[in-house]
């Protein structure tokens, strides 16, 4: 059984692309929050919880939102929609914010809403809450984008019939440097992928590497 | 008291990242949780931190929280009553 990459998105430097097409380009920003907030407002999702998320979760959330606008997740059983993400810094960006709030014993005011994001898989939780996903999920740590690791994990989930569709990719953020590359992986035999057969890409290490290299 | 209420509204908005809400959108007597601002349990913890950090007030008994954090006005009442001059 083969799978295809039916949609992909990239958020890096000053640009957001979906299936290779630029959706958003902004030069005038200093922080990730300044970059992503206008785009979030433009999506008009009516989801105020977004503002409470840490930066890593915002990056994953927006990536997943764009993917879910391209594929119709409602045609799948939400218990069988998987998410497998990876990055190199885990939740270090937020860990550092938390550490700053506790390092001075005379000003010891740790924020509960910061502390809850000191685990990288909370990002996956935010995506699952938003889209009501209850399938297999994992967050893998590797030094750099590792197509072999992601391919082998996700392909195995399909082989073991654990998922019907899987969101997978790289969501990395540390100290205002961000890089997200998220894909939707679906079985090649679905009617949906046939509809898109003109543009569907085989799910393979090579394809992932090619798509990742573009930006 | 009204000055404290307005200050609290601004602090709550900032502390809880209520991005799309302005101070004038908050009714001082409306419940903060449930149908009011729709705050959650993490927000409740943030409000406890806010009282301690900005006003030096520590809530010893968690059961008091429900009453204290009912609305902006009940928070203001608690601060007025307990803050040392």
Brief digest:
The complex is a heterodimer of chains A (215) and B (85). Chain A has 8 helices and 8 strands, in the order βββααβαααβαββαβα.
Q: Just name the CATH architecture of chain A.
A: 3-Layer(aba) Sandwich
CATH 4th-level superfamily of chain A? Thiolase/Chalcone synthase
Low-pLDDT parts of chain A are: none
Broad shape of chain B: globular
**Approximate strand percentage of chain B:** under 5%
Q: In percent terms, what proportion of residues of chain A is strand? A: 25-35%
In the CATH hierarchy, the third-tier topology of chain A is known as Peroxisomal Thiolase, Chain A, domain 1
Please give the count of helices of chain B: 4
The helix-and-strand class of chain A reads: alpha+beta
Please tally the helical runs of chain A, counting DSSP H or I stretches of 4 or more residues: 8
The ordered string of helix (H) and strand (E) elements of chain A is EEEHHEHHHEHEEHEH
> Count the strands of chain B?
0
Residue share in helices of chain A? 25-40%
| Largest sheet data of chain A | 8 strands, mixed
Write up what this structure looks like.
The complex is a heterodimer of chains A (215) and B (85). Chain A is of the alpha+beta class. Chain A has a single domain, classed as Peroxisomal Thiolase, Chain A, domain 1 (3-Layer(aba) Sandwich), CATH 3.40.47.10. Chain A has eight helices and eight strands, in the order E-E-E-H-H-E-H-H-H-E-H-E-E-H-E-H. In chain A, strands 1, 2, 3, 4, 5, 6, 7 and 8 form an eight-stranded mixed β-sheet that branches. Chain A is globular, with a radius of gyration of 17 Å. Chain A starts with a strand and ends with a helix. Chain B is mostly helical and 85 residues long. Chain B has one domain (2-19, 40-82). Chain B has four helices and no strands. In chain B, helix 1 (2-15) crosses helix 4. The model of chain B has no long low-confidence stretch (mean pLDDT 90). The interface between A and B is small, with 9 and 12 residues.
